[in-house]
């Protein structure tokens, strides 16, 4: 499995203003936005799959992917004869999440335009977002599983994660824990390595289910019981 080098990597000497304008220009197309939103589920997709999601011709999709690739928004990896595209990292997912929040903003009611099926629970790249995630985050703060501001798990938090079976990476390549602003709730949910580990645990226990290509997360009947038991949240 090999990563393709992007042109953007060699342009570190560009001015900040030029770099920002290039990224903004790369995003400023509905088809490319559709591609980026599809990749927000955290998985890698082929160009053919992405063309179906964006409802555009494969040849057009190839051009859009090249633009996103060259501006460092996506990466391409090869496996055998196939090429798969994914977001370039968690920082790109966070950028898109914030842009979604700005786009959905309305002064009268910040949440009325948020689709109901996404507001309750959805993926934010590789961790949970929505009402469910916000409620879990607030429980963790109240029970002092998290440091103030969500910057790290406390020793109590690490112990509780270990007790329930959440496996944390002892040497994460990114923030071990962080507060991620939820665009529909305008409050924080758990991000970073801890947020990813928690979602992975929920999936392994089959407490939640996800559908490839969609950000919606469904809570199973066993998940409702388990989340009430662990986080004192009544989701029934």
Automatic annotation (TrEMBL):
One of its GO terms (biological process) is response to cadmium ion. It comes from the Bacteria. GO terms for molecular function: cadmium ion sensor activity; DNA binding; DNA-binding transcription factor activity; lead ion binding. Residues 12-107 form the HTH arsR-type domain. Transmembrane segments: none annotated. PROSITE patterns: HTH_ARSR_2. NCBIfam families: HTH_metalloreg. This is HTH-type transcriptional regulator CmtR. It comes from Yersinia frederiksenii. The lineage of its organism: Bacteria, Pseudomonadati, Pseudomonadota, Gammaproteobacteria, Enterobacterales. The gene is cmtR.
């Amino acid at each position: 499995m090999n990563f393709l080098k992007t042109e953007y990597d060699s342009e570190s000497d560009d001015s900040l203003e030029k770099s920002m304008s290039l990224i903004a220009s790369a995003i400023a197309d509905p088809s490319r936005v559709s591609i980026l939103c599809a990749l927000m589920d955290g998985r890698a997709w082929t160009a053919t799959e992405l063309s179906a999601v964006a409802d555009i011709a494969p040849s057009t999709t190839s051009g859009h992917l090249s633009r996103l690739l060259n501006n460092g928004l996506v990466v391409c990896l090869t496996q055998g004869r196939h090429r798969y595209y994914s977001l370039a990292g968690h920082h790109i997912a966070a950028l898109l999440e914030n842009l979604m929040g700005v786009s959905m903003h309305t002064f009268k009611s910040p949440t009325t335009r948020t689709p109901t099926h996404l507001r309750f629970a959805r993926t934010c790249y590789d961790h949970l977002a929505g009402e469910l995630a916000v409620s879990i985050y607030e429980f963790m703060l109240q029970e002092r599983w998290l440091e103030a501001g969500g910057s790290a798990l406390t020793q109590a938090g690490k112990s509780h994660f270990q007790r329930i079976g959440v496996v944390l990476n002892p040497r994460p390549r990114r923030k071990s824990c962080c507060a991620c602003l939820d665009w529909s709730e305008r409050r924080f949910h758990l991000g970073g390595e801890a947020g990813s580990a928690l979602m992975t645990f929920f999936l392994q226990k089959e407490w939640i289910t996800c559908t490839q290509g969609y950000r919606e997360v469904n809570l199973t009947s066993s998940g409702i019981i388990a989340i009430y038991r662990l986080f004192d949240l009544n989701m029934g």
